[in-house]
Amino acid sequence: MDERLDVALIQTRTPATASAGLAHVEPLIREAAAGGAKLILTPEGTNVLEQRRGLRDAALSTEDADPAVLGLRALADELGVWLLIGSAIVRSDAPGDDRAANRSLLVDPTGAVVARYDKLHVFDVDLPGGETYRESASVRPGVGATVAETPWGRLGLSICYDVRFPHLYRALAKTGATMIAVPAAFTRPTGEAHWETLLRARAIETGAFVMAPAQGGAHEDGRQTWGRSTIVGPWGEIIAKADHDDPCVLPATLDLSAVQRARQAVPSLLHDRDFDWPQ
């Protein structure tokens, strides 16, 4: 296995329809591939960002009919790259549940979807600045974690708010993940306060590369997202970071042997102990 991997994170400001979302992200993915990236990751909500329920429901398709998903699968095939669609907001296939699925899709260089992950933790909050989010009202949480095989090692999948639940990341690492994706659309207040700290903590705890492509800026539905897409090494060091909210490509080369060195230096993944919970 090659111990060096050229990756690229795509930072976007996704529009409110899937066709517009594809048109927005496609040139950035082409730029990343032209720069030599073999694994390209996009943010949460790559196809559609629309929090107004009626407009969002009207914009959604099933995974197999979504224009952005289909277009991005064809693009991965054309460019011969691995592509993580950080998430696509698609119609859920759960009977009797009209909520959407917030779904990561790992696409191989033939355009095939080789792994799926539905966001486990949904974000319900009333922020001090007046912003309110009720993701649970419109998004059906997933039920299982996912670690996917790639030519460079195992890739653990997560989405945005998941980053606040360290036990998920420990489970991904203990199941062999040496890289973990955290595609996100973090709000500005929480992003400014917590984004980098959480990403570095998850990397340190797992001894894995953490790759976090983000949405950034003012969106059509009124939300404000933080941007600052970031790649963190397994020792907790920042390898690459966007210092703004604007759409961009963030390239980096990962030295995959750093995972083994970090885990040998601090072998905490081997030291779990059962304990009695406090009463």
Automatic annotation (TrEMBL):
Residues 5-256 form the CN hydrolase domain. It comes from the Bacteria. The keyword Hydrolase applies. Pfam families: CN_hydrolase. CDD domains: nit. PROSITE patterns: CN_HYDROLASE, UPF0012. InterPro entries: C-N_Hydrolase (IPR003010), C-N_Hydrolase_sf (IPR036526), Nit1/2_C-N_Hydrolase (IPR045254), UPF0012_CS (IPR001110). Keywords: Hydrolase. GO terms for molecular function: hydrolase activity, acting on carbon-nitrogen (but not peptide) bonds, in linear amides. PANTHER family: DEAMINATED GLUTATHIONE AMIDASE, NITRILASE-RELATED. Belongs to the carbon-nitrogen hydrolase superfamily. NIT1/NIT2 family. This is Putative amidohydrolase. It comes from Brevundimonas bullata. The lineage of its organism: Bacteria, Pseudomonadati, Pseudomonadota, Alphaproteobacteria, Caulobacterales.
